[in-house]
Amino acid sequence: MVYLNFTNLDSETQERLLSSSKEDVEYRSGTELRQFAEIHDKDYEALLGLP
């Protein structure tokens, strides 16, 4: 799971950055994450940190 450290940002900016970060992770590693989730019986959405 990816954790970001936001400092001195309003909540709207934090959410926008977190959303774009998750999209970037999914774009770059989505196939591998899906395969890992299937092999290890994990929730793909939870791996990305999505609600």
Automatic annotation (TrEMBL):
Protein species of origin: Maribacter flavus
UniProt protein name: Uncharacterized protein
